[in-house]
Amino acid sequence: MLRELEILTQQKAFKKIPQRYFALTVSDDGVVVEQGDSVEDLQTLVMLDEELAQSDRFMDLEA
């Protein structure tokens, strides 16, 4: 979904809308919110890990 949002923000109709991206991580003190104006501003991205885990769960459904 993040990639789709990035694609949309590059379209002319959405270019003037300010962007803000957020990442949530669990720490010993609770949940930490990280934010930035672009995906590159975020240090904590687990997108690929989650996409692979989702693919594994989907493949397990077929078995």
Describe the protein's architecture and organization.
The mean pLDDT is 83. This protein has a two-stranded antiparallel sheet with strand order 1-2. The protein has one domain. 0% of the residues are buried. The two termini are 26 Å apart. Helices cover 38% and strands 22% of the residues. The protein contains two helices and two strands; from the N terminus they run H-E-E-H.
Structural class: alpha+beta
End-to-end C-alpha gap: 26 Å
Helix content: 25-40%
Strand order of the largest sheet: 1-2
Largest sheet: 2 strands, antiparallel
Helix/strand order: HEEH
Task: Provide the residue-averaged pLDDT.
Answer: 83
**Low-pLDDT residue spans:** none
Whole-number radius of gyration?
15 Å
Which features characterize this protein?
2 helices; alpha+beta; 63 residues; flat
Give a quick precis of the structure.
The chain is an alpha+beta fold. The protein has one domain (2-62). It contains 2 helices and 2 strands, in the order H-E-E-H.
Layout of helices and strands:
Elements: H1 2-9, E1 21-27, E2 30-36, H2 47-62
